Amino acid sequence: MKQIIFILLITLNILTFTKEIPQRAISASQFTTEILLSIGAQKQMIGTAFLDDQILPSLKKSYDEIPVISKRAPSKEYFYSLNPDFLTGWKSITTPKYLGPLSELEENGIEVYIPNSQNTNKIEDIYVDILEYGKIFGLEANAQKVVDKMKKDLKDVANDKIKNPPVVFAYDSGVSTPMVVGNSGIGNTIITMAGGNNIFKNLKGGFPLGSWEDIIANNPKYIIVIDYGDQSYESKIKFLKEDSPIKDLDAVKNNRFIKVGLSDMSSGVRVANTIKYLHSYFIQK
Hints:
Number of helices: 12
Radius of gyration: 22 Å
Strand order of the largest sheet: 3-2-1-4-5
Structural class: alpha/beta
Helix content: 40-55%
Shape: globular
Order of helices and strands: HEHEHEHEHEHHEEHEHEHHEH
């Protein structure tokens, strides 16, 4: 009898600490939304938010089946009215300004997973997050396929070496001072793995402030222009060509601009494709 009670207690304890697979998930960033859609979790999602640009074409059909609950962060009241059981997205979403701290969300029965890869410069951390989403949503095999495909694509790029990496300037925004791609985020890793030499690779921060003088001194062969938000890609090109301090550089005069979306430079499933895309430019003689 004692043995039966002991086994029952162990069973109850296991049940107490076993997390259920989310059925009402909300994703509050484009890169986490695209990860969840890539592993096939769309039927377990009830809302998305924080779309930076166009969703990946291969994921659009699944994406369109899920309500967009907010262009940016949803209000706390509306968020809770949807009765979600899981939240993921930008780290900032779990702050008092938006949906409340982690402790508050968890006290209200909401499982939260904030991917570490959003603050990393390592591709491996993205793999870890994708596989973790697979475990959380019971889609481990799908997640592994996504990771395996990314690894294969990156292996193909690595085997296609560039002997003399071209100097690259990645322009986010800014007039008096340019906001650039630094060494703390995944952007610099993307440029490096694609075979480029980022002018600001030693500057701390994901998107720190650089200087026009350094750009002129390094004379980049290519200029990556990040497209997002209210300032269009076309308006950024117009500024660089007509009013910027670097308007006389060869790269500007010869239109050696490479357009990428902000989500292409984020820590998600796009990373391998972005590296392949940039590599196709950098390998040109």
